[in-house]
Amino acid sequence: MSPLPPAWDALLDRPFEREPHRTTLARAEAAAETAVVYPPREDWFAAFRLTPPERVRAVILGQDPYHGPDQAMGLAFSVRKGLRLPPSLRNIFRELASDLQVPAPESGDLTSWAQQGVLLLNTVLTVEAGRANSHSALGWQAFTDRVLAALRCLPQPIAFVLWGAPAQRAYAQATGNRHQAPGTSHQSPGISDQGAGSSTILNSQFSVLNSRPPRLILTAPHPSPLSAYRGFFGSKPFSQINAFLAENGEPPIRWAE
Description:
Elements: H1 6-11, H2 21-34, E1 37-38, H3 46-50, E2 58-62, H4 87-100, H5 111-115, E3 118-122, E4 127-128, H6 140-151, E5 158-163, H7 165-175, E6 199-201, E7 206-209, E8 215-220, H8 237-247
Parallel strand pairs: 2-3, 2-5, 5-8
Antiparallel strand pairs: 1-4, 6-7, 7-8
Helix pairs in contact: 6-7
């Protein structure tokens, strides 16, 4: 039986019935037999369970799950209610409060975002406790590449949020997109979709894809303390996404819930 909800399983053409995805899943399950793996097995595909493909309106791409006790819940950047905010999520909330002029959320649980159509996708879905990136060699990236490629073909407007060079490289690899837009020396390159239409650069961090269906690509440094001051703060991704959705007849995302 597929670990994916039926709609995602159909969209991705039943990926876990074939290689290399079947082997990736088997490797992750074997690793969980001999070590503590996060998130819990029932949450490996939580992002897909909470955000069906027909409801996706934004995609925030992370790297791999948190490797601390009880933090990871299958949603990129999200932690369970009651836990202390990790530094990157704290900076995300700081930018949210500044961007939208609202109080920052108190809880780091981003389930409400996922339920509103924000796919919180890590490129690697599992990690061993205390060992960041420890499952990066299991092959999850081939699966998430497939997800990103499929998302580009959905009919609704979608914003892609790519914070940091790894997320931008992952998107470029998955979509076959190699165009580099001009930017400042400290800014990761913007990305456009060569196959879908021309790209308009709004500034060094944002580009709109004038495609059908509409796409918005947002690039900025990662929100971690090491890079947030290099352009993440002040990038205003949340208002940009809502403006894009409004322009295309979609309701805004209630980010501060």
